Amino acid sequence: MNNGKICISVCAETSEKLIEQIKCAAPTADVIELRFDCLEKIECEKLSNELKQVRRSFKGKFLATLRPSEQGGKKNLTLAERKEFWFNSGVSEFVNWADFESEIPIENTSRHSAKVFEKVIKSFHDFKQVPANLDEIYERAATNSETLKIALQTDDITDTIAVWKLLERAKSEHKQIIPIAMGEAGKWTRILGLAHGAPMTYAALDAGSETAPGQISAKDLIETYLVKKLSPQTDVYGIIGYPVAHSLSPFMHNAAFKSQNIDAVYIPFEVKNLDEFIRRFVKSETREIELNFKGFSVTIPHKTAIIKHLDFIDETAKKIGAVNTIKIENDKLYGYNTDAEGFIEPLKNCYGDLSDAKIAVFGAGGAARACVYALEKENAHVTIFARDVEKARKLTDDFKVQSSKFKARNESYKNFDIVVNTTPLGTIGEFADKTPASADQLENINLVYDLIYNPFETLLIKEAKKASVPTIGGTAMLVAQAMAQFKIWTKNDAPMKQMSAAVLKKLS
Ligand code: NAP
């Protein structure tokens, strides 16, 4: 358990809506940040009366913020208006803490004094970049008495290192800082900050009500990432890829760690430049910060590019030519591929013996390679169907399988026992209303296996059901490959029930 606090930021146009949000935040938050700049009209007396009621159940702190538009706030405000709010509006009567940008005087005489607040957070924001003179900004702002908040927009994960280093520096100087790397690439700083000494992390009330880029919901911070229980000794795992925001792996793996009481956390790491990430975050000889990494899932587009960074690659991964799992032990990187196992286990459980089964695999990309490798090991007869047979050539040559163009809509796949879809047709988004085969084409097939897991039921699965063909959806493989990763990392059998439940909850 660390000493960090969760601050839920609330932002609404009217006092009524703000009060509603405050009531929703109160059961989970340690601190509730009232974003006064979101209000069309600031009504301190009304809020003061309402908050008295909330106070009966909420024992945490109220933090007031009035962010001007030039610093990412919602209102155009003059300095005079801001000072008027802070020192003459009566806000200090009902909030405990205040967030002051550098222009607001903290130490002052007379009634223009911030001493009326229990605590002042001095904040600095840059919504465009990590400024080159960051150390100078820190030196100017950091004091021994106030907490400093520095929130900077990051575009690439390597930008986040400079932000994180502020936390290390402040710790060594016995100062308090909340460093925030905003944006998808900086999400990890919001998750690991408390473990490494940040006094507070900001959270959204729920998904969709974020008040800053990359903010995570309080529920996920508390229930999925267990941020208040993390420490510098916590084992850190994560998914590296681009993009990773959609990934369900954090929910599966964190549920698994939680159910087995393992002091570990699994985090999304949005990595554009893999070589730089490995150099600056991972390799012991060159890394610039210490996060206690123990392993990664690797996803698109890095599954093949990661191979050159490994100290060891297992036979399966080598044959498939892709790595989806890294274990880090004694600073060495071990690479594995659990996609093949994750694919074949549910298939064998459902179909039984696959030897001599005739299998049509749609698509010839990375996932198809893992499927074909696993099917060949089971002595199945595979035919690849691709829109571009030439592009599929490497796969068909490597595994000595047949290939063909997709059949026309009036032609059937009835000569096959099993159809496997590894194309993105049917995935949520632009492909959602697409299917690689219709019900008519699937008649008399024994099984349809669609690797797509979002949506839970794709159009292909619906078409198969229409033709009364049994189906396996993509969540089966998703969970099975993650279970195999969990075993590699922890040597424990993975808790299938908890991992499946975590995925289904997110997809429902
Ligand atoms: P990939 O390497 O990009 O391969 C995609 C394949 O689909 C390529 O052969 C591509 O052909 C083909 N394709 C793309 N768009 C198509 C279209 N409109 N019509 C016909 N074919 C098309 O991707 P991947 O890594 O293999 O992943 C493929 C799918 O499997 C993704 O949806 C992914 O989410 C899913 N998957 C699921 C799991 C799981 O655990 N359930 C695991 C891995 C992957 P071209 O080469 O001609 O573009």
In brief:
The chain has 508 residues and is of the alpha/beta class. Helices cover 33% and strands 21% of the residues. The radius of gyration is 27 Å and the shape is elongated.
Given as residue ranges, the uncertain stretches (5+ residues, pLDDT < 50) are: 108-112
What is the general shape? Answer: elongated
Category from helices, strands and their pairing: alpha/beta
Beta-strand content bin: 15-25%
Which terms summarize this structure?
about 500 residues; alpha/beta; 8-stranded parallel beta sheet; 6-stranded mixed beta sheet; binds NADP nicotinamide-adenine-dinucleotide phosphate
Characterization of this structure:
This protein is α/β, with parallel strands linked by helices and 508 residues long. Helix content is 33%, strand content 21%. The protein contains 17 helices and 20 strands. An 8-stranded parallel beta sheet has the order 7-6-5-4-3-2-1-8. Helix 8 (249-259) runs antiparallel to helix 17 (496-507), helix 11 (339-351) crosses helix 12 (366-377) and helix 16 packs across helix 17 (496-507). The chain is elongated, with a radius of gyration of 27 Å. The structure holds NADP nicotinamide-adenine-dinucleotide phosphate. NADP nicotinamide-adenine-dinucleotide phosphate binds at residues 300, 339, 342, 363-368, 386-388, 391, 422-425, 427, 451-453, 474, 477-478, 481.
